[in-house]
């Protein structure tokens, strides 16, 4: 039974860990894009 | 259908798969409860193969069309494939110890699976070291196509050679097979894994598109 619990824990930790990592990365990139957009707007650079 | 809806469907699929594995499927006579690792272990392996098949097809599409969108799909799918194969190997090790008495053995199936994992880790590392997008995409496409050759050999390994790893119970010929209830539980799990792959790929592609946008805006700012 212990082996079964460990095996399924490994699966869910890996999947949730990866999803969480992707969500954090997405948030960081969204924040960076907003910074760059406002920088472009302030300095009148054409997209 | 938005990726969030695919995510919800995948979550519901996972809950159903857990019910199928732990409630619906019967106990296996010789291995007992630990055999229930089978459902997620095999599904993760199969989805890993499918993810690398997507790398293979996208690689060919990129080499034919020179369109970087195929390169993006290939790289994202390779990352998810590595995740699935990592889980497959880890669950296999945790199944092997109580049943075989050993964590690992260098038989054809296990060795080829480890090789596949190393090949696609190398594929991802290769991408990190080349700055020029077209050069990187071309090299990765060729590498991905060649690395995929391991998949059919690995699939056939337990059919061609006598291995410590068990013979196939699905599509394995007349002497093989699964209990009908186990087969249904396995199919439910596999369907849940397909939804999970679709969700993860959609999520990873969205991150990659945003990263490309950031690169574009940074170049725009630095060019002024």
Offer a few descriptive terms.
heterodimer; A: 47 residues; mainly alpha; B: 224 residues; Four Helix Bundle (Hemerythrin (Met), subunit A); 7 helices
Quickly describe the structure:
Chain A has 47 residues and is an all-alpha fold.
Structural description of this entry:
The complex is a heterodimer of chains A (47) and B (224). Chain A has 47 residues and is mainly α. In chain A, 87% of the residues lie in helices and 0% in strands. Chain A contains one helix and no strands. The radius of gyration of chain A is 20 Å and the shape is rod-shaped. The relative contact order of chain A is 0.08. Chain B has a single domain, classed as Four Helix Bundle (Hemerythrin (Met), subunit A) (Up-down Bundle), CATH 1.20.120. Chain B has seven helices and no strands. In chain B, helix 2 (37-65) crosses helix 5 (133-148), helix 2 packs across helix 7 (180-222) and helix 3 packs parallel to helix 5.
Write the topology of this structure.
The complex is a heterodimer of chains A (47) and B (224).
Chain A: H1 2-42
Chain B: H1 3-24, H2 37-65, H3 68-100, H4 108-129, H5 133-148, H6 150-160, H7 180-222
Taken together, the total number of domains of chain B comes to 1
How many helices of chain B does DSSP assign? 7
Sheet of most strands of chain B: none
User: Largest chain interface and its two residue counts?
Assistant: A-B, 27 and 31 residues
